[in-house]
Design brief:
By secondary structure, the chain is an alpha/beta fold. The protein contains 8 helices and 7 strands; from the N terminus they run βαβαβαβαβαβαααβ. About 45% of the residues lie in helices and about 15% in strands. The chain has a 7-stranded parallel β-sheet, with helices on both faces. Helix 3 runs parallel beside helix 4 and helix 4 runs parallel beside helix 5.
Amino acid sequence: MRNVVMITGASGGIGAGAARAVADTGSAVLLVDHRVDGIERLAAELRADGRQALACAADVTDEAAVQGAVAAAVNAWGGIHGLVNCAATMISRPLTETTLEDWTRVLSVNATGTFLTCKHVVRAMVGQATGGVILNLSSISGRVGLPNQPAYCASKGAVLQLSRQIAADYARHNIRCNVVSPGSVRTDQLRSYLAAQPDPAAAERALVDSHPLRRTADVTEIAAVVVFLLSAQASFITGADVPVDGGYTAV
């Protein structure tokens, strides 16, 4: 049976980069996002290159939609062997200016969305002799406090703890669950964040200087770690939080 990996948030950024890298290993990929145009373009690109890929429109906060996405992978390829949770959103405001709507939106996508996808993918994996691998994208924001990110930090901390719980509970089913915690990565989200700052150039310099390697990451550097953790080479790694942060959390 072909290895099958479901990737959320696959329309751009880390999700799209991970999808390309995973597809390059020969795995079939199910691309999940509420932004349909992005995943359809990426699926067509991968298929044109001889890869197996399907686009599945779904909002990760909608449990029925998540169930449908998992069913799409199982129906198309007979099982699901990997999950990479990249779907996320960020609202950057001080605590006292963060509205309940802001808080709810960020927690719904980042924490609840991860919970729902893990829940239904684990149900599918438990019935497989091969088990499976889950990778949840957290962040340096899940390990340390960052300015003006109360909801984002809380949501990414929740992802980290949920992942440890899944690793402990489902190891007996040969299901591994790990976390990848990137630092600053050159994505559209980062570019939008910098553009919204009073002095974007100064904000970018400060961001670069906060990483000991004195640069931000390329999406491909995160994707390479994703591919490794999905592979048999990482077969004794579970419950781990792997920082890919240029040394940010080391100082």
